[in-house]
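Work Package 3 (structural annotation) set out to generate three-dimensional models for the target panel prioritized at the project kickoff. During this period the team completed the workflow that converts sequence records into discrete structure tokens, so that structures can be stored uniformly alongside our sequence database. As a representative example, we reproduce one entry of 84 residues exactly as it appears in the project archive.
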Amino acid sequence: MRPHPRYHLEPNQTGPWIAVFNIIAEMLKRRIVDIAQWTPFSELHVIFEVCGRADELIEQVFGDFRIEEDGRPIPVGCSLAPCS
């Protein structure tokens, strides 16, 4: 079965899907910060499953993700992992 063309996402595509992707990414970042307020940690690693179509977007959106605790930067790593 072929995916519906309306749901196809190309890395360099612009339009409503890029906006939706950015909204979801910002929500995830805020959720991470919410959890961080209740969970002590010294570094953060966010791992996404490689999907091919959105990998470039994930790297763009999360490549500059920074988090601080009391003005002290916490190391953040963003990685793509193959599905098992």
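Residues 15-81 form one domain.
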